[in-house]
Q: What sequence folds into this?
């Protein structure tokens, strides 16, 4: 029997920690244990069991949380690969892979005892005329708590739930424990408490009912005789009413697997209503061959917007399901709307698990357990769904594989697309990357025959791609003598669509009212207190907001630097664009989609539904409107300043602009009427603008590859951004200086090091930031250099959390 276990803990240290195995239970590799760490209790994943006595004294494992691994061999290997490739602490990688940490916060729950039930019974029989030395409010709270616990039918109620629902104090709970009315239990390690939801089922409505009882019975029968217990409890009746009805046999409480609440939005027509065209059939065949080979294969599905990629994915997944195996479909953050969820439920029934960003930690854990038990084999979700614990993985699909939301911008800074490819390799599965605008990296991989390429060059039903007309805004300025936001051409085209009762989308990829407040006297901008970033004016909410850290300031009447009254609000954001359009088209029904108007999926869905139903004429928005929606009434897309990004000092700026322009143009003309795009730009000669206007992906790709090759940027080099940060400028200067000197003295052959230099955003969220950019044609050499640098930084006692290594960085800002 091994005496020790090594545990990976979610702390920013590149090591595992050794603990003594407890006598009562044996941990398993890949399972979790609860251990003491510094002054806390912490759960971590066991990576090794052994008998090697450590040189230092060893503490004991507090409890073994899993008797079987939560991470199987394949996921453990995948975690190790991520830790090595992205230079991230293994424990932090495991934490990202497992949505189970919520289960292991130390928590206690309560259960009512027989004495408690008796006390409640006596109290309700004798009314409120009992004599007691305790204050009546406190007593009332105790009985409310007892009533709540009775309503739980003997189930454990978490302390947090009890306190927030009843408002009972800790001391009242203690007093009730002393009276033996309730029992406290430790549920830190309980795993099954959250797996299922309780559902009330109507058995009979016979017999005499009081008002409260009738309310419950009627609610239940109005919803078809079956309803989550939670819903009944949200009604304004005492919790004991339900218990009484259960006792009388009118209602039965059963447990059902908890599930993603299916949206109430109407299911759209099934995506299988049309026949596949030839390229779609070819894509499905390619996908099928990859799956059936039972070894790794990569496929890039490059399909123009509206070419029916989703239908191919779903057909492929259905075949995988029919063969008894599993599939994962990754979608970008904004892609998982309730309507999509409804479609998926319609196609896959209970076999689908949907992991979206609106899930709570508990709900995520529930889905995870369902998948682990093999109850759901079709997994759909955002970034972290790539870690879903499915068995017999046959297929991973990454939809919109170019999307920036696949990159996690905190430790571990992994890219879910690249992790998907690695997981497929380990599982001997097929991976399909799909996009209308593939990333340069993925397209380059097809050139090198790492992936095969399948093109869907046409829209379904031979619908044409929209015509794109470029409006040169410099000319517009010369001819009108004014800085225009909406050109004459765009205004005329919008009016035309409104007259024809067709719909319009207008993109401006910047939210707020005006992005800059400038003093005409001293020339300074109003900046965030925590960041070197101009504050954006939000007119309706009457405040200045930092879009990077959320800092809020009042709207200035005078310059904060010199006191001058000549402060000017410059530039246009989506809020101002909406106002301008209201001014030009007062009759039009206009809505806006950006992070200020969309707080959750429901807001987003509501606006899209309104557009679909013809209740809106114009939707204005940021890049949110560019992503994947299929609204048939939209025949005109206006692009107002989507090329702002071309001015950013970032080598991916052209690629991003091309992608955004192509994606938003793709929203036009998806129905019977052909679409048109008006593209306003100050950079009309830029190749990203020109190629997007001509729907020429291959042309853009060639040109951009040339640039990347000259500059030794990806995909020709592996690249990492090393950011040194601190809220003290002196620290940053000292640390980046030390690391810079070390890089100069320890030359790593084949690795170019640029820096240290102030990062383009020199101050962010209070931290000063300096950075290095490392490039190398050899990934291995790059990795070695970074590893050695981290070792040096640790020796110099530079805190690990202040040196951020971002391998394959998406942003160098
Ligand atoms: Zn000033
Ligand atoms: Zn800020």
A:
């Amino acid at each position: 029997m091994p005496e020790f276990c090594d545990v990976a803990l979610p702390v920013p240290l590149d090591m595992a920690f050794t603990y003594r195995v407890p006598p009562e239970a044996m941990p398993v590799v890949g399972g979790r244990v609860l251990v003491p760490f510094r002054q806390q209790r912490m759960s971590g994943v066991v990576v090794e069991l052994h008998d090697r006595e450590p040189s230092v004294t060893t503490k004991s494992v507090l409890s073994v949380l899993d008797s079987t691994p939560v991470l199987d061999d394949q996921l453990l290997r995948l975690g190790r690969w991520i830790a090595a490739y992205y230079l991230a602490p293994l424990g932090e990688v495991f934490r990202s892979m497992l949505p189970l940490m919520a289960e292991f916060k130390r928590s206690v729950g309560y259960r009512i005892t027989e004495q408690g039930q008796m006390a409640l019974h006596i109290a309700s029989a004798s009314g409120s005329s009992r004599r007691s030395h305790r204050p009546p409010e406190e007593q009332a709270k105790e009985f409310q708590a007892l009533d709540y616990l009775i309503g739980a039918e003997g189930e454990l109620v978490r302390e947090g739930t009890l306190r927030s629902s009843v408002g009972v104090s800790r001391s009242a709970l203690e007093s009730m424990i002393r009276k033996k009315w309730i029992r406290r239990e430790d549920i830190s390690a309980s795993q099954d408490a959250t797996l299922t939801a309780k559902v009330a089922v109507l058995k009979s409505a016979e017999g005499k009912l009081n008002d409260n009882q009738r309310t419950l019975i009627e609610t239940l029968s109005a919803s078809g005789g079956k309803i989550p217990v939670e819903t009944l409890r949200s009604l304004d009746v005492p919790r004991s009413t339900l218990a009484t009805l259960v006792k009388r046999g009118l209602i039965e409480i059963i447990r059902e697997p908890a599930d993603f609440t299916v949206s109430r939005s109407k299911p759209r027509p099934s995506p299988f209503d049309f026949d596949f065209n030839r390229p779609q059939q070819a894509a499905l065949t390619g996908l099928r061959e990859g799956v059936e080979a039972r070894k790794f294969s990569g496929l890039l599905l490059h399909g123009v917007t509206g070419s029916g990629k989703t239908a191919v994915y779903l057909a492929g997944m259905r075949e995988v399901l029919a063969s008894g195996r599993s599939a994962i479909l990754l979608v970008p953050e904004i892609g998982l709307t309730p309507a999509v969820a409804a479609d998926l439920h319609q196609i896959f029934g209970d076999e689908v698990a949907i992991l979206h960003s609106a899930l709570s930690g508990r709900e995520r854990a529930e889905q995870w357990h369902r998948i682990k038990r093999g109850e759901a084999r079709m997994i759909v979700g955002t970034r972290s769904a790539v870690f879903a614990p499915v068995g017999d993985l046959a297929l991973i699909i990454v939809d919109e594989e170019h999307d920036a939301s696949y990159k996690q911008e905190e430790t571990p800074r992994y890219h879910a697309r690249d992790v998907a490819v690695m997981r497929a390799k380990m599982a001997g599965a097929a991976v399909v990357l799909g996009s209308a605008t593939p990333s340069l990296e993925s397209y380059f991989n097809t050139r090198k025959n790492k992936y095969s390429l399948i093109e869907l060059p046409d829209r379904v039903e031979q619908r044409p791609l929209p015509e794109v007309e470029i409006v040169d805004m410099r000319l517009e300025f010369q001819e009108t003598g004014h800085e225009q936001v909406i050109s004459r051409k765009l205004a005329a085209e919008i009016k035309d669509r409104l007259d024809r009762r067709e719909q319009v989308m207008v993109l401006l990829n910047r939210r707020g009212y005006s992005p800059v407040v400038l003093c005409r006297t001293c020339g300074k901008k109003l900046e965030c207190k925590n960041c070197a970033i101009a504050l954006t004016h939000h007119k309706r909410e009457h405040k200045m907001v930092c879009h990077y850290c959320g800092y809020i300031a009042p709207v200035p009447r005078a310059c904060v630097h010199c006191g001058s009254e000549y402060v000017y609000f410059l530039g246009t954001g989506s809020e101002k664009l909406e106002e301008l359009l209201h001014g030009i088209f007062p009759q039009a029904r206009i809505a806006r989609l950006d992070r200020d108007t969309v707080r959750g999926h429901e807001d987003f869905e509501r606006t899209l539904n309104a557009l679909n139903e013809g209740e809106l004429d114009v939707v204005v928005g940021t890049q949110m409107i560019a992503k994947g929606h299929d609204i048939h009434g939209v025949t005109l897309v206006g692009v107002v300043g989507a090329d702002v990004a071309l001015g950013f000092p970032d080598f991916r700026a052209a690629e991003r602009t091309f992608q955004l322009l192509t994606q938003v143009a793709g929203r036009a003309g998806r129905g019977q009427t052909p679409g048109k795009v008006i593209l306003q730009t100050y950079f009309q000669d830029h190749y990203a603008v020109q190629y997007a206007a001509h729907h020429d992906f291959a042309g853009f790709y060639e040109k951009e590859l040339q640039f990347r090759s000259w500059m030794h940027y990806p995909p020709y080099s592996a690249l990492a951004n090393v950011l040194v940060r601190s809220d003290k400028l002196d620290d940053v200067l000292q640390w980046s200086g030390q690391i810079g000197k070390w890089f100069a003295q320890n030359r790593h052959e084949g690795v170019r090091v640029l820096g240290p230099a102030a990062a383009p955003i020199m101050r962010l969220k209070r931290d000063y930031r300096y950075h290095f950019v490392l490039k190398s044609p050899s990934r291995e050499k790059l990795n070695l250099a970074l590893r050695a640098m981290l070792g040096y930084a640790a020796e110099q006692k530079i805190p690990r959390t202040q040196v951020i290594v971002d391998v394959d960085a998406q942003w160098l800002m």
